[in-house]
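Progress report, Aim 2. The chain analyzed during this reporting quarter is listed below.
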Amino acid sequence: MKSNHTYIIGEIGQNHNGSMDLAKLIVDLVSRPVREELFGIDFKPMDAIKLTKRDLNEELSVSQMNRIYDNPNSFGKTYGEHRRFLELTDEQHFDIYKYAKAKGLDVVETICAVGALSLLKLFTPDYLKVASRDLTNLPLLAAFAETRIPVILSTGMAGKKELDEALGVIAHVHSDISILHCVSEYPTHPKNVNLNTLSYLIENYPGYVIGYSDHTIGISAPVAAVAMGARIIEKHVTIDRRMKGTDQAGSLGPDGVNRMIRDIRTTEMSMGIKDIFISESVESAKTKLERSIATKRLLKAGHIVAESDLHLLSPGDGFKWSEKDKVIGKKVKSEIAANEIIYNNDIEQI
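Predicted structure tokens for the chain:
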């Protein structure tokens, strides 16, 4: 990944509601560039979509799969029926993969079970994602590592011990690993976001790409994360936040996607270098708005300038107050009206 480019992942997850058409509409949304009209800047869109693949034989206990799941976001009478409705086949994942690739997007797959790695027979995702809940699923991580596909880890349910154990399993085979700070609270309350974890990860895990998987409402947290050094941002996206589905309300709709891309890309452009200097872009404003030494009263030819004759006015193309010794004690060459800037050719040495 380029150090000056934030890799933005639009997480579809289960926001497709079991519909291929809806999944492709979200791909269209993610791939859409964003234009900033005032400066005429076309911003690069998101970089990737993320899908989730489960193997329901390795998902929950029988009793949990059979429990009644009666709520407004349910797609089945039991939780098992709900999950089966939302699960896309390997072939459907491949279809979406091809569609996204045609749009210039990468594809990240969150694989939730060893059995779900069956989709690798059809295609190779650009990244495999380890969901927060599976960071301690070391057999799954070992299977991930053996594929040698780059891995992204989310730390939403992990401390340092769990993270280090997970890294050890994968890094034993390869080191193409990214770590995302994450809080597994949906949505995440602002007091629990703790973006300073990013600084900790950047400092203590220098061999890995560090990013942020966001579950807050709005876009302030991911934009702030970029300013703090996050090089990957992951955010749930949807076509309509009012649609049925557990994650819809906490996702970004089309306007939110546009604003987040705009603000992240603007932040990238805004970071600059560690220095303080006068930018070429402010030279005209500096000349127009800064203050220069000017006359308080009419000064006649031959007058010797005193400090009491002076004050400061715009524009800023004359002497600065730090240069007052170049004016005080000098002779006026020709009359200068009150409240006018004193220039070098207005005075002479005595």
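The chain has a mean pLDDT of 93. The chain has two domains: 7-270, 280-348. These observations will guide the mutagenesis work planned for the next reporting period.
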